[in-house]
Design a protein that fits this description.
Layout (H helix, E strand, L loop, with lengths): L1 H11 L4 E7 L3 H15 L4 E13 L5 E12 L1
Antiparallel strand pairs: 1-3, 2-3
Helix pairs in contact: 1-2
Length: about 80
């Protein structure tokens, strides 16, 4: 719920666009937050853009790990 509160607060403070970003297992939470905001709190908010990709992260062992990422742009 704190993610939802943070996005709603940004819209209340006058932001026209809010970017919701997530990687890995948190991607489903980002989608849930977006839909919760659009359906319950800021019904005039619309998804302007969705970017998906892969980030390479260096592990402690020195290897590179590919992690899926998403950025959802909400506009009001």
């Amino acid at each position: 719920m704190s993610y939802v509160h943070a996005v709603v607060t940004q819209f209340d403070e006058g932001q026209e666009t809010v970017h919701i970003k997530a990687r890995g297992k948190a991607i489903s939470r980002a989608v849930d937050v977006t839909e919760f905001i659009r359906n319950r709190f800021v019904e005039e908010a619309q998804v302007e853009n969705v970017d998906i990709g892969t980030d390479q992260i260096d592990t402690d062992e020195g290897d590179e790990l590919n992690v899926s990422s998403i950025q959802i742009d909400l506009t009001k």
